[in-house]
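Record 1 of the preview.
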Amino acid sequence: MRRAAFVAIALALVAVVTAFLVGRGGGSADDPVAHVGGRAITKGQLEAVVHHFRLEAAREDHPFPAENSAVGRRVRNRLLGVLVYRTELRQAAHRLGVHVTAVQVLKRLQASGGSGESSHDAFEFGSAETQLLYEAIFRKVTRSVKAPTRAELSARRNDAMTRFVARLQRTTKVRYEPGYAPSP
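->
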């Protein structure tokens, strides 16, 4: 019964969001909201992430800001920043020859357990994929780092990866569509 109620609430939320977007001329889910190194992030991808967090908030009985509020736009744009980061990491992994398979991602999701659910949404899949990519990039970027002690080795590896990510974010060309951009 509890799962049925959750599904009903989720469907109602989707209907409300869809009606809101159609009512205000929200455009197509295929419309880009950002471009990262030539790859578009679509409105549909962003809406799926917002929907994920809206459901999480409902599950935890926390309010989620209305999309048309200033707080709602800030939350949406922060979540867009997450999608931009993931895209930057995927592109860097590709350039480095680092690959993660769907099977690896599914194994990570299964190992993480979480709520005990057997199905995961696109955001959870993307989170596991990002973790695996980050770990693989970390190994590649830090493989030649040396240090006299384990603690110093760990610190040097972390520093090397921090510099790599900072350089990645500094050099990747990101362009946001009007009305979309993460807050500093």
